């Protein structure tokens, strides 16, 4: 815009100067000019090729455009004694001529300059740009994260605190011959706090901290990614000692050789440049690389070796003590009622990550605000936990009485088989209120944090998964079973396949792995069977079928023997819609359930020992069209 304004101003000035040189006067027609000459009114004229200017005898100036090829004009002027002279041809204004002729070139040059600036902002100059922006972020004290804000992952925090201490006091370690780690790779499931740890390092280190995402390196233009890596490390060298954080490094650090052709694509070229910059021929002293990923299995081995990433810090799912500490951090921002017990909530949320717990506290605060409460009570936390685990209630969904009855017996079948399987997790809650995509659900909870998965529990889960379909067949007949068991069948089939092909739990096939997850073309994962010929494949499929049918038989035996309890439990669910695990136990033991003044409504949630989410527990339920989500 500035250059365009300057150009227009120049044109205006040239135009003014050009007009100033022209003779002012009245413009007359050429025929009228000849008449005035014949009448003796013209005193003198100047003849030019493009214009004739002159003065009348009364002193007025005039001008006219001559008619080409008029040979009589000079004779006419002589006969009437008019003084005339030849007017030289006007030379064009050279500046104006140059500007007008160079206008297309200047326009193309301006467009090219603008495009080049835009490419530089998003291309090779990106490293400089993000370095500047993050330096500004470090100067802002508001929203600063420190290690005090990181809870529940103490071992990972201690590993990175040592890096920060080395930056603050290098003599303490170097006097014993220790060298500063060149890199630390944070590995963990989504939501466990990898990026939060990096933000805490930025807040604690007191040195320049650069951050970039792995996807920011890769572009459609060949060589841009490698250029960005070079620019980033050049900027880091100028500010050493410093820390460079690369989030989601698997976007650029995948194993080489998985592409098409000779695999020399843009991503691999970027990775090669990253490997050289991290530990190549030239040493980068004082630059610590911190990277985060939840896919360490796809990273290139050259990226993981010591000298590039000396430490691989595992950021795990927190245990019960860690969950309690994480809840304490997030509950500081929420006004709590006296009955809130963070230990009870932590015990009831095995498998929750830090992000899940933060979402739980936020959902509880939103529920309290919706209910016009000034404090967040335990009831809000329990309701929020159910919402996170099972999905939001869909009470507005219209279901016929037959569908409700089918759903009630389906969920009662799951619950009754679960109660009769000693290895099964205890029931937390059973409901026929539609939640999420499911029409009903039975949520089971482990009593403690589980770190392994035993065979007896797998067989119990197979039986519980089949309980819903078996209950439908017993009550409504073989021809009336619904598609609601599709999610249960999918869960049971996947579990049985893993037992046979990955975990070596088949007597006929032995402790061998028959399936392997491989990285395919274009980064797509694919499962392939290894060591399996035609006969072995038939045996694998037969063993998977036997395991699922074994669970079906166990569920059939339980529900056939206790059909009266199946009716009792289904009728209670039709009446109360939601039952807790303790209520189901009392109902099966006493044959009745006393819940005063609460018919036809959701059960009041009582904090039970060991509630959980689908990651750690199981949920089985009827679905609309067979789309019930399954957790395992």
Automatic annotation (TrEMBL):
One of the record's GO molecular function terms: ATP-dependent peptidase activity
Active site feature: 411
InterPro entries: AAA+_ATPase, AAA_lid_3, ATPase_AAA_core, ATPase_AAA_CS, FtsH, Pept_M41_FtsH_extracell, Peptidase_M41
One matching Pfam family: FtsH_ext
Domain of life: Bacteria
Biased segments, Basic and acidic residues type: 590-601
Keywords carried by this UniProt record: ATP-binding, Cell membrane, Hydrolase, Membrane, Metal-binding, Metalloprotease, Nucleotide-binding, Protease, Signal, Transmembrane, Transmembrane helix, Zinc
Residue span, AAA+ ATPase domain: 180-319
UniProt membrane topology term: Multi-pass membrane protein
Positions of Zn(2+) binding: 410, 414, 488
Cofactor(s) the protein needs: Zn(2+)
Family of the protein in this entry: In the central section; belongs to the AAA ATPase family. In the C-terminal section; belongs to the peptidase M41 family.
Name listed for the protein in its UniProt record: ATP-dependent zinc metalloprotease FtsH
